[in-house]
Amino acid sequence: MAITVDPEPVWDQPIAVPEKWIETVDDNVAAKLPAGSKVKGISRCGTSYWTRTAEIQTEQADGTPRSFFLKVTQNEVGKAMVSGEFESMEALHGASQDLTPEPIAWGTFAQADHVHFFLCEFVKMSNDLPTVEDSMKMLAELHANSYSPNGKYGFHVPTLQGTVPQFAEWTESWEDFFTNSIKLVFENEERSQGSDPEVQHLCKETLEKVVPRLLRPLETGGRHIKPCLIHGDLWDGNASTNVDTDQPVIYDATCIYAHNEFELAPLRPARHRMGTDYINAYFRHIEASPPKEDQDDRNALYCLRWDMNCSTLYPGNLRYREMCVEVMKYLVEKYSDGYEGWARAKGEEIVSR
User: For the whole model, what pTM was predicted?
Assistant: First the structure.
């Protein structure tokens, strides 16, 4: 299917976290720095809709300079954001140290118990995108060599996309996991943007027809996939090039153990600078899951979940919803016979869920 050129959202709300929280280094943050660190300064670094971010400059015990990256949030949602990010980055760094900054800690400010932080290694990044081949080779290796600790889909702590919790409960099958995940996204989006009869109908048809048709064949008829560790929010806003190593670096993760192709959802929208050339490069390093002919529409389905979550994040801006409606119309019309119709046409035994 065609990939619609979609505009960036309009988001003009002020950051809810006061800037004062990154004007000094809180005692609890300082306590998490390496032993013997002397704080030399703190300065704003990076941009975010929902957090404040800064670089902490230090002198280490041996006299060498070293910087750290600090992200500050507030309230319970902010606490979940930084705890989930720490657990995500710790899992990713354990699986691929060359691809990620080293996470150090998350915690709560000593001077304000509603303010929370994430602390990690500071990586100097260029304004360049990671190279297509290098980044996708490293991503494919991460997916191929990582395994769920219990063989299931999910994650051991809640993780958020933006400010919205995503489904992360341990689940045996990928179809069941994704069904629960996108159903939650649909419900969140309706609460954010309001109910609409057409959207409700398309969401229902997507859940009942499209999801089983595109995902059940991955795990039936002798076909298998494995849960692997994914970054979960991999677009050009969360990827760059390490100035010191000239290698790709990814950050700001919201991990789950998932079908590896799920990682590629944010690379589909034409608004993103990391696009289909990265998807094509990825499949030069790891084969698409069978049925291979479904890969592009699986990607459209996975991107639908991602864009519906984006719609949730920007109440009153219906651009994402409008794009998602067009995608759902396409998928619902193409797969109106659902999984059962496909199985009968292929002569495969129909498997019920």
Answer: 0.95
